[in-house]
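Hey Z.,

So I finally got round to the acetoacetyl-coenzyme A thing we talked about over coffee. Here's the setup:
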Amino acid sequence: MVSFEPTEEQLMVQKTAREFAARELAPKAAERDHEGTFPRDELRKLAELGLLGVNVPDAYGGAEMGVVAYSLAVTELARACASTTVAVCVSNMAAELICTYGSEAQKQRYARAIVDGSACCGAFALSETHCGSDAAALRTTARRDGDSWVLDGSKQWITSGDHAGVLVVWARTDNQGDRGARGIAAFIVEGGSEGLHVGKHEDKLGLRGSTTVPLTFESCRIPGDAMLGNDGDGFRLAMTALDGGRIGIASQALGIGLAALDAARDYARERSAFGRPIADKQAIQWMIADSATELEAARLLTLRAAMLKQAGVPYTREASMAKLYASEAANRVCYRALQIHGGYGYTRDFPIERMSRDVRVTTIYEGTSEIQRLVIGRSLTSA
Ligand code: CAA
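And the result:
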């Protein structure tokens, strides 16, 4: 029999995240959203709990608890505050990437700094103004100059890009772009580096407690040993990181969906119409039943992708399936939950309004639904 039951250790990580979320994230989630407050203190506390490096080896300061534990933790955090959770997801993704491909010195310095919170968080700078889905079309360049690399270009949609002490940045080392996806390398850049300029915060629909900024590199000189992995391997590194990242976003979407379902069920029990709680009406029960069923399917797909990654076997397709399904299901769940709340759901007096805005981006970032379908479709049809 295939077991999806978490182990004792995984349950412990889940419980840690759940208790932290209830105590530290939930009470100020609405305020973070209204005021656009970045969760800096909360990230420091999450680092103390090991939640910025759940799947990072102990040798680099991580919790070394694996991918399933990571997924369970992200879901618990997202139930309380999706804004904080995205900074957690990107930090875990950057720290893991550095641990997988970095030199010993890079792992000790940069992965550790993300995980122990001294870097505040990590960032992942791949997209540019003209290319998000077509990541290999990026134009930022890296030129060797003596003992240094010099970066020029700009990046777009960088989560936590203004707070991160450690950024992984992708740039072309074939200045003409003639090597396509094979002309790209990844670099580790320290936040605050000279020549790295942070642009204006995006005024977003949701995740308003998380920052999203453009970055400009103007003759940004970084050390000669700042390359992560080998020259020409950068695109593959990005794809590998995103495979894992998509499990994180599927887990986040699941968490938002579960919170919306809870809110809808509670409201439906309290609210009466035509002399009875609306929870007794079949129309409402069917919405709740569909939502619970879809979230259960999302949970199983996400856990399966996490289990495959943890087992060290290919999981690209399963991660895309989890991300595609969980993000779209969570959007449907939030839509129904708001519908159940009626007019009240459309106001800031109820958290479903924030959840409905926060959930929207889960079908867009770390690969749109269309890109997930492309990845899944190619894997099923290529010879
Ligand atoms: N693992 C390892 N290698 C992979 C891979 C994977 N999952 N996918 C592709 N590759 C390799 C291929 O094998 C190929 O290698 P060779 O050159 O050796 O043959 C190379 O990468 C190029 O692959 P493709 O020809 O498939 O590349 P493509 O240009 O057709 O693009 C794509 C593929 C799937 C569309 C990719 O561009 C993609 O995933 N796009 C979406 C980008 C994305 O998700 N961006 C998110 C931004 S980050 C973010 O949102 C974070 C945040 O802040 C929240």
